[in-house]
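Q: Sequence in, structure out?
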Amino acid sequence: MRVFLTGATGFIGSRIVPDLIAAGHQVLGLTRSDAGAARLAAAGAEAFRGTLEEPESLRRGAEGADGVIHCAFDHDFSNFAANCEKDRRVIAALGEALRGSDRPLLVTSGVGIGHAGPGEPAVEDNFDPDYPNPRVASEIAAHALLDAGLNVGVVRLPQVHDPVKQGLITPLVEVLREKGVAAYVGDGANRWSAAHVTDVARLYRLALERARPGARHHAVDEEGVPVRDIVAALGRGLGLPVRSVTAAEAPEVFGWMAMFAGLDMAASSARTRAALDWHPTGPGLLTDLAAMDYGAAGR
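A: Exactly. Output:
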């Protein structure tokens, strides 16, 4: 299969590239720079120039592909809502390139969109278009394409990690470093699901190879790691005191991250594992946090 991959030089995409190639696929990887093109060539992929700000450029990349994996996202979380809307426009453009065919398109979302109720892990079958997280825009765009007859599926991400990056935890490190305290909200019992980046990369490939319209997959190994345990690990690594803050104090302590700090983002992947025969093998989140170089983190 010739696969057009957005985010091909990013944290997750750069792991998807070798996984696809090892399985016999060809990769056309999106990049905006000469350095990115060189990295893709070294990995055995073909580079395609384009940007998220110009959705039509991505449409051209998808037109000649047998399948598309869209995992690029603008991770400036201070402009989160606007970036989610940008993602919606990109998904619509990719869909236009695939219209009239059964070529698969995988889009990316977050596990929170599968919210199942207070204290319950998110599940694949749940989708609430009125969910308050702005990232729901990506899944609304995917559903519009599905209703138009396209073969669209969704991969929902937890905290994807290795010893260098860990999803939302990476910017959290800098917030805590700046504030001089490793803080969590309330009793810190809210949970964040997690998976190692190599397991997530493999899931994308399996989801593309076994694509079916409307499929939603949770790239989750650990269903829920308590945030107080995550913050305790960060406190040890940063040499900071660990303490609880109230929900009212959260905006002052966490800044833009206050919208995430108290969320319970536990998620199940039982249906995903059964559907894709996916069995994560990578180290756990706390293991990677213990192995991180905190002197280099975020620098």
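The first helix runs from residue 13 to 22.
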